[in-house]
Amino acid sequence: MNIFRLLSGVPLIAFTAPATLPAQNMTPEIRQDIARLLTLQVLTHIGELQETLGAAFQKILYVNTYRSIVLSGKECPQPEATACPAAAILANKQLHRYGGDFEGKDVMTSIHTELDTYDLNQATYQSELELIRKRLREHYLPILKQRELAKERQLLRINATRPEVTVLPNGIQFEIEPGNQDIRDISRSTSETGITFYTRITRDIQFDALPESIRQIADQLPPASSWTFYIPYEAEQAAEEAGRRAAQDMATRREERLQQLIPDHMRNSRPAPPTEAAAPPRERKPLLRLKVWKDTPEYPATVRPDAIETVI
Length: 312
What we know:
Number of helices: 9
Oligomer: single chain
Largest sheet: 6 strands, antiparallel
Radius of gyration: 27 Å
């Protein structure tokens, strides 16, 4: 039996992308909000640990560990090996999320200023946190989305220059792995060959569960033993919209045909088909990397399947 799987365990291509991208629309106010958010997260975390551990909690050790990582501007590769893993893990999360969009010195200054009095102000921290998060959602999240889109476009431009990569009109890129046991069609199964797709969660899904943008171009793919796809969100969104339009057109044509078959004196009595409400705007998702390959007893796959991979 030929089996297809979705793979994310294989190494990514060595994209040559800049370490940083322009900070579109970054303002001092946004940077201050981020620094304040991180300060409140640290103070709240210290309060929780002190309440849990009591006298065993070493506050100064926590602060020193946090300071060394945040002021370095680089995530700690082994947080569990530090003097205070809890502080190192939080610092890593903050650096990963906010990168260079805050001043570590400002955060540390605020922490040292409030370290001895934070327990008196905990009641006001939650409301302050909510206000800051609301402002960041409105003003900082769009900046992150702009950066994500710019990075994706650059990755795709670089990837398109590789001779083994084919760029389809819908924006999807793919490369193939040729072999003797070629897959001729990923969208069909026969009595001799059962076709199954695998993901980490279900381990067994059908062709219809693949991204719409892949299903629509399945008949354009050359024979191969595997394909690796790079799927921009815009390509998948356009494919899903085209699929919806096609379904609506089919329903309209069916209704028109039925109207033609209904006698004239009964034609207007048939209720109009319900119209679908407009779907709410969807949040943009990152670029996907998806690999589909064949697994046979003669050529077994050596890597276990995993979830579809997010490149960004």
